[in-house]
UniProtKB/TrEMBL annotation:
<feature type="compositionally biased region" description="Low complexity">
    <location>
        <begin position="166"/>
        <end position="175"/>
    </location>
</feature>
<feature type="compositionally biased region" description="Pro residues">
    <location>
        <begin position="176"/>
        <end position="185"/>
    </location>
</feature>
<feature type="compositionally biased region" description="Acidic residues">
    <location>
        <begin position="51"/>
        <end position="60"/>
    </location>
</feature>
<feature type="region of interest" description="Disordered">
    <location>
        <begin position="1"/>
        <end position="118"/>
    </location>
</feature>
<feature type="region of interest" description="Disordered">
    <location>
        <begin position="157"/>
        <end position="192"/>
    </location>
</feature>
<protein>
    <recommendedName>
        <fullName>F-box domain-containing protein</fullName>
    </recommendedName>
</protein>
<dbReference type="InterPro" id="IPR038883">
    <property type="entry name" value="AN11006-like"/>
</dbReference>
């Protein structure tokens, strides 16, 4: 469609209005030309406007200010005169003589009905005068010097610590004494258990924890003594643990009681499981405090174990719970005396290597092979410990410490 027809349609259109909406096309490429407003200057970010027609000389460059300054020019300060401030005033000379420094120059005051200098105190506080009336006698010539004291006339005193020069000359401040509160009567402190001497506390610990006989875990007849006293505080636990575990003798042996769950048809013998649980409960730290130990080794009872176990399986040298006990004692125990008794169907031979390897890990200052039973070795029918002679010599050589740990 010709361009003239487009303009005619645009002029008579009620929707587009009366504007010229004809589209121009590039004569070479045929693409429509976008008509947009051109910038006044080809350099948008520059404050200098340069056109193509102008020359590049410095004389043709015109500076254009994009943002005109709206700041009011600073008015000149009024000239200072020598009569505005008295350099020989008493306040200034006193400040300079006492502080040893040059006082600051006073600032200019706003216009007032009475032309008088603003006094400056030694602290540097400026006092603003609002309403002041001075009676000047007739015939008086010269400056008028005013000495004002801060705090008079309802004016607040300057905030800040007082300067030494603010005290008048020849005036001595009275010594200030802070009133002491009356002494409080301290309540009488009660004497507790930990206030007793250490010797008395140790005697109380021995009366509480040390038993007359052995602590037999297989037959706990004297387990009525409670160790709850150790849980009172940390200090009591540290002081009494060594007496409980170090001054008592523990007796370990097989426990011939049935043990099992209610859903099991047949219960088995408890054996050495209770001893293993006891050592795991007290932990390595308390195990190291045990000094005296008696150990009696017995085979499993046939009537208290299932029929599937053979005679060899019922020997104590194959008991896994006993092997775990020997391993724990060999790692953490620091025994002083150790008494052993082997009471099985067969003697302990050198071929029982696994059992002897864990047993010889236990060290003590003295090791004895005593008669069975250990609880009553003096009875008539007591039997000797069952072990081969090479085994006995090997145990005495490897389990006894060469250097005594205890006296």
């Amino acid at each position: 469609m010709p361009r003239t027809k487009q303009r005619k349609l645009a002029q008579i259109s009620s929707e587009l209005g009366d504007g010229d909406f004809a589209m121009d096309f590039h004569p070479r490429t045929g693409r429509p030309i976008r008509r947009s407003q051109k910038a006044d200057s080809p350099f948008v970010d520059s404050a200098i406007a340069v056109t193509d027609e102008e020359s590049s000389d410095d004389e043709s460059i015109i500076a254009v200010s994009r943002h005109p300054s709206k700041k009011r020019k600073r008015s000149p300060s009024p000239p200072l005169s020598d009569d505005d401030y008295d350099f020989n005033s008493p306040s200034e000379s006193r400040c300079e003589s006492e502080s040893g420094a040059i006082p600051p120059r006073p600032q200019a005051m706003p216009e007032m009905s009475l032309h008088a200098p603003t006094p400056v105190t030694c602290q540097g506080t400026q006092i603003v005068i609002k309403d002041l009336m001075v009676n000047v006698p007739l015939g008086h010539t010269g400056p008028i010097v005013l000495h004002l004291t801060p705090g008079l006339g309802g004016m607040p005193p300057p905030i800040g610590p007082p300067h030494p020069s603010s005290v008048p000359i020849g005036f001595t401040r009275p010594p200030t004494s802070t009133p002491q509160p009356p002494p409080r009567s301290q309540p009488s402190r009660k004497t507790g258990f930990l206030d007793l001497p250490a010797e008395l506390r140790n005697e109380i610990y021995r009366l509480t924890f040390v038993a007359k006989g052995r602590f037999a875990l297989s037959r706990p007849t004297n387990f009525s003594r409670s160790a709850a006293f150790l849980r009172t505080c940390r200090q009591v636990h540290q002081e009494a643990s060594g007496i409980l575990y170090g001054e008592n003798e523990f007796f370990f042996s097989r426990r011939s009681d049935r043990h099992g769950s209610f859903w099991q048809a047949e219960w088995s013998e408890l054996g050495f499981k209770s001893i293993r649980k006891f050592l795991k409960t007290i932990g390595p730290a308390n195990t190291a405090m045990i000094r005296h130990l008696s150990f009696q080794f017995e085979d499993a009872t046939p009537c208290l174990n299932p029929d599937t176990m053979s005679h060899e399986d019922r020997r104590f040298v194959h008991d896994e719970a006993l092997i775990s006990i020997l391993r724990h004692l060999g790692d953490y125990a620091q025994l002083q005396t150790l008494k052993l008794n082997f009471h099985g169907r067969r003697r302990v031979e050198a071929t029982d290597e696994r059992f002897l390897a864990y047993l010889t890990r236990i060290k003590a200052d003295s090791v004895d092979l005593v008669r069975y039973p250990l609880t009553r070795p003096e009875i008539v029918f007591a039997t000797e410990s069952k072990q081969a002679e090479p085994v006995r010599k090997s145990l005495m050589k490897t389990m006894v410490r060469k250097v005594k740990l205890y006296d």
